[in-house]
Design a protein that fits this description.
The chain has about 325 residues and is of the alpha/beta class. The chain is about 30% helix and about 25% strand.
């Protein structure tokens, strides 16, 4: 059994294009039905904003791995100088059930989250924005926001005109990679980021929704944190993409709010698999905003963890017990 911590994963020679390819291959495997993924339960106690989520899955095809991610999210940790999220991913041999690897730390979760965004953004850039530059905004500059910044620069750096960034706690200019500071503006409020961006990532831990402004025509809203938009922000319903309707239409997400207040139905949405396997984004009318709400699929976590564990074994990194 291989044990990997974040410091081990940082030493690996992974790259963003390969991570996004892992997500795309997994999406195709799932679309073919070769997977198992029960609805994930949420464990809550004490403070209701805290949660620990169990995410089991089996992925067939070229992955052929089962496992589970156990991920805690305690937003108040930031007041005590602790990370918001703590997690561990366990990989089991699909044939015998033997535990083959344990990945502890926040990096696998952050890499999976940004790689899923990278896949949708890659399809959007190819199908809806094949030419021209990209103006990207990120609201929230924690680990997830910074990981999305890194993903964007590595995959789309040649097309990025500028970044706009905002965080309630402020952003240290030194936290922006030096080679990108001339093309990055630190905004004084989320409204500036919203107005300046054609592609907007919300990567917050906000307790309350705050965005009421309608998106600009053709804007891509990457709703990573899932609870940022009031329903009235969508005066006209955007094209809505989800990773899984049953997962995302619950737990007070923006999708659930649109379902309850505006009557949004599953059949009115597209899935990530629709975008990847059936070119659904090419059918979005010109000028219509696109809203992507990924709840987080355990299958993607298992596939990314398998990719990282394979790299570690090949490189002799980590602890074998």
């Amino acid at each position: 059994m291989l044990i990997l911590a974040d410091e081990n994963i940082r030493k690996l020679r992974w790259d963003w294009a390969a991570l996004v390819d892992v997500i795309e291959e997994t999406a195709r495997i799932m679309d073919a039905g070769d997977f198992a993924q029960p609805i994930k339960p949420y464990l809550r106690y004490g403070d209701p904003q805290n949660r620990i989520i169990a995410m089991p899955a089996y992925v067939g095809g070229s992955v052929r791995t089962a496992g589970i991610k156990w991920i805690a999210s305690f937003p108040g940790n930031r007041r005590h100088g602790l990370p918001r999220a703590h997690g561990v991913t366990v990989l089991n041999d699909a044939e015998t059930g033997e535990v083959r690897a344990i990945l502890a730390g926040g990096m696998p979760n952050a890499l999976r989250t940004a790689a899923v965004s990278g896949l949708l953004l890659r399809r959007f850039a190819e199908d809806c924005r094949p030419d021209g530059t990209l103006r990207i905004g990120i609201i929230g500059w924690g680990p997830i926001g910074r990981t999305h910044f890194a993903m964007c620069t590595h995959l789309f750096g040649h097309r990025i005109e500028r970044f706009s960034l905002y965080d309630l706690a402020g952003i240290d200019p030194a936290s922006v990679p030096a080679e990108w500071r001339s093309r990055t503006r630190l905004a004084s409020g989320w409204e500036e980021v919203f107005d300046e961006s054609g592609i907007l990532f919300t990567c917050t831990v906000s307790k309350t929704r705050y965005i009421r402004k309608p998106p600009a025509p053709g804007m891509l809203l990457m709703d990573v944190s899932l609870r940022d938009y009031w329903p009235e922000a969508f005066q006209e319903m955007p094209a809505v993409i989800v990773d899984d309707w049953e997962e995302v239409c619950r737990e007070n997400t923006d999708i659930e709010m649109l379902h309850l207040t505006r009557g949004l139905r599953k059949e009115e949405t597209m899935t990530l698999a629709d975008a990847v396997c059936r070119g659904a984004l090419r059918r979005v009318p010109a000028g219509k905003p696109v809203l992507f709400c990924p709840m987080g699929m355990a299958a993607f976590d298992i596939a990314v963890a398998r990719y990282l564990a394979d790299l570690a074994r090949d490189a002799g990194i980590g602890t074998e017990i």
